[in-house]
Give the backbone structure.
Amino acid sequence: MRLILAQGMLGLNNGVFYAMLSLGLAIIFGLLNVVNFAHGALYMTGAFVALILYSYFGIWIGMSWLHIGFWPALVLAPIIVGCFGMLMERYMLRWLYGLDPIYSLLLTFGVTLVLQGLFINFFNASGTPYPGQPESLRGVVNLGFMMFPKYRLFVIVFSIVVCLAVWFVIERTRIGAMLRAGTENPELVKAFGINVPLMITLTFGFGSGLAGLAGVLAAPIYSVSPLMGADLIIIIFAVVVIGGMGSIMGAVATGIALGLIEGVTKVFYAPAANTVIFFLMVVVLLVRPAGLFGRTR
């Protein structure tokens, strides 16, 4: 039982990353109907922005150099990645609206290859450790059944809070209602004086920023690598499909649940841990093609 609980906690750590990345992907697809294959690359970019800020930027205080560490990067990196996402939507994806979603998938796949190539050219492909983990989050916490790193526990709590806050804004507030209305009936919303193209751009930027935020949180745990997003994007698409394409709560709940299932699977049959998510995706699609939380039309 101790081993199951320990693997469950490690799986939960992976699950909150699945949830946050799936949330951003679900927002972009559900509100804009864009299949953003570059979401994993934006996650990778967020981690690299945190690494670059720590390595190359800072201020002199007295006789010492103060790096731009984790806490400033947690704010700055999502903003930078979100701005890049807005530029991508404004000058690339906007030309593809109304066309088959396969065109947006191919375009964002091309953006992924470009970003990976750029970071491979300037950094090593094997990965670079992020040295900026805050002192206050170092060490371990005794959970009774295991000693768990403080930082990983912070990531779990922080990610769940962010996911629930985003769900509440989109599903329960006036801003969220405007976003949904603007994508479902843009002409009617324009009649009320709302700038729908700007709202769409901001929405895409927000979804991209969530990927950047997840990248910053992942940087102290995993090596910052140009291929870290490529290893994750297929799993994230599987999570979104299982939860229901475009379902905000489906992305969050499914991401966390699948992380737990993946972790517990390692206890009973470790080789199946890498494929259990895809097996579940096949089963869900056979039983409920719209996904667990998706709406059937």
About this structure: The CA atoms of residues 210 and 264 lie 27 Å apart. The radius of gyration is 19 Å. The longest strand covers residues 58-61. The chain has a mean pLDDT of 87.
